[in-house]
């Protein structure tokens, strides 16, 4: 079982959380201005890295906070990231 | 190729089984092939076989970083079925089931194919509606999917306990009679042997670490731990590693890799003669010919390349198991393992050319043991002719740019 470091509640069991996947850059402000293929790529492409992976978690069954951490997809080693940064 | 039969068995028994030929050769690695297939799992090997058989292409090498059939093909729970929801997926998998039915005879290798029905246990009204819709979609194409009552469910799965205390009491069952299982290793070995007999070369312990690129960016070969190999076409069949391998050619793909685990018990007397699937609680099980109960559940709920047994998911699966089958509390588990399976954005396979001339991919096989025969048939067609096979036209990468998603979900392990 993974212990996920919630910036508000501290380390909690993974079952309380929902993984929201890779932390992709913010959505472009004006999608209509993008070329179709750039927009589609923004929606669906994932780096799917084998190794350190910056990802979002949602503490759904507790405080409700959404935050980012770095988790190694091969070893599950977890590194908390700056909680003040935009997740 | 040395043919296998009752006579060859008897003949070789008389000579103390010392006269068997190797099932495939280990020739020296050449510097150039017409086609290089990366990954000797079921898909890579089936593709190689169909290239040789349907298209007469035998200047083909299959490069495998580990040992042949040692990836997800070795790790899967060998369920074969065609109960999908999209027209193209139903037709595609129906052909695969039919190819499986012929495989032992066609390849002269007993794959222990056993058609024994899969029964879905329906424990919510949402799932009931979903599966009835699925059965109507399937009725248009041939494969069967029939609703049965709870009484019939209990009659056909006597190992199940009393349903009084079950949190989500079953409402009905759905039977897919064509569903089957087959020995996974034998599927890889039979294609390897048949491809080798037609001249294809299989090179184990040969890892592709990079790509050779022509002046126009086209892929013209691969770098390996055993040197450079050039090829007119490089075809990736690398399963969960495909994002990683394609990245070395600068190619991004809409894939996410996850860990899917399974475990088996000690062998017990015959208890279950169908494949039982419980999509509402994330559990499926069957009994192997050796008597082991083979049990699987959902994927770990985040991207992972761990290829291990993750306890939170294991516990979840076991909790579902012992609620429906309380007597299995006494079962001892023998082995548990995981595999890195890859999902495309819409959960349908990708059999496609890429933006890079010379590089083709077959991926998105998160439940792709069942698709090995038809996956190889259609990928070989694309490689040899440059145009998609009619059964796989919808599986190109161009569907993403056109937003023509082929959403598939609700398979065995999916909740
Ligand atoms: C626990 C579990 C249960 C499953 N149950 C089922 C089921 O019941 N039914 C079903 O239909 N499917 C099931 N699946 C899915 C099924 O196993 C896969 O979809 C299928 O085996 C994929 O075959 P493949 O040939 O694409 O992959 P693999 O067999 O994984 O072959 C890919 C090969 O590529 C090689 N490779 C990777 N990178 C490189 C490189 N750089 N150079 C050279 N070689 C490389 C790997 O070593 C590997 O051998 C299950 C999977 C798991 C993990």
Automatic annotation (TrEMBL), chain A:
Q: Name one GO molecular function term.
A: sarcosine oxidase activity
| Annotated TM spans | none
State the species of origin: Prosthecodimorpha hirschii
A GO biological process held by the record: tetrahydrofolate metabolic process
Please give one Pfam family short name. SoxD
Q: Which InterPro entries match?
A: SoxD, SoxD_sf
Q: What is this protein called?
A: Sarcosine oxidase subunit delta
TrEMBL record, chain B:
State the organism of origin. Answer: Prosthecodimorpha hirschii
The protein depicted here goes by the name Sarcosine oxidase subunit beta
Ordered alphabetically, the record's keywords are: Oxidoreductase
Is the Oxidoreductase keyword given for this protein?
A: yes
Keyword Oxidoreductase among record annotations: yes
Task: Report the GO molecular function annotations.
Answer: oxidoreductase activity
A single Pfam family it belongs to is: DAO
UniProt domain Rhodanese: residue ranges: 35-79
Tell me which GO cellular component terms the UniProt record holds.
cytoplasm
Q: Which domain of life is it from?
A: Bacteria
